[in-house]
Amino acid sequence: MIYVTGDLHGDLDRLKKLPVRLKKQDTLIVLGDFGFIWDASASEQKKLRWLGRRPYQLLFLDGAHENFDLLDKLPAEPFAGGMAQTVSGRLRRLLRGEVYTLENKRILCFGGGASEDAEERTPGESWWPQEMPSEEEYHRCLENLAACHNQVDVILTHDAPEKMLQLLRLNEPGQVQPNDLETFLQEISVTTSWSRWFFGRFHRDQPLGPRTTAVWRKVLPLYEAQPKRRWPFGKKSKEL
To answer: How far apart are alpha carbons 56 and 54 in whole angstroms?
Structure first.
């Protein structure tokens, strides 16, 4: 089974106390602001090795609060039909605009987002311009979608499309001004066929309609598991 959760910001306790018991065949995807790749210290490397040894597969999208200089140094390699960066063991970063196939589900991933506190951060130490996607990343996303006829099962992002942004901030004063990424995601939402959309960033666990969900601390299944087939008379009878 594939599960998703929201921003971790380097909080190891969140992974040590997961509300769901994940097994070897399971996958957990973090929807941005992973936060464990920050200073390249010895203690951080130890944590990354521990994360890579989890019995389940651990994947993450980048968010706004990441050390992108360190992330950019990781080599990309083929993974699940797209390109991903291996950090340690079964720990990988899913790249912007890639379409992956996991458990027969076609999944579009697109990380990144704008820091609302960027003015309070130091460039190259606590803030990086790569938090927002490049034109090349937008273009690659459109190319990858065209290759699968603009049809995916699930979309996973850190930020949200413009329409969802309006719903999330419905009761807040002032007009919502979407950035380039949110405008791009809104375009994707109407030009692509998809069944479910999960995103992080907003530190909320909140469904927004039947298909779209904001995720933070909850660990949610990507899709509903199909019930096992039951034979009407108990155990399957042997053929005579």
So the answer is: 5
